[in-house]
Specification:
The chain is 0% helix and 49% strand. It is an all-beta fold and 55 residues long. The protein has strands spanning 5-10, 13-18, 25-27, 30-31, 36-37, 43-46, 49-52. It is globular. The relative contact order is 0.25.
Length: 55
């Protein structure tokens, strides 16, 4: 099974967590090392994929 990221709600906020991916997960250019709250217009990068969080 591939390890990857997950985006999940917790209360009224959404968080992203890296589940052991090979290259890591980055929010606004910073590598995350645990669940990280997403804020409007955050840029999330994992592998060749870039996402922008919007509500």
């Amino acid at each position: 099974m591939y390890k990857r990221q997950r985006i999940f709600p917790d209360g009224q906020f959404f968080f992203i967590e890296d589940l052991g991916s090979t290259n890591g997960t980055f929010v606004n250019g910073r590598k995350i090392d645990g669940p990280t709250q997403l804020k409007v217009r955050d840029e999330v990068v994992f592998g060749d994929t870039t996402l922008r969080y919007e509500e």
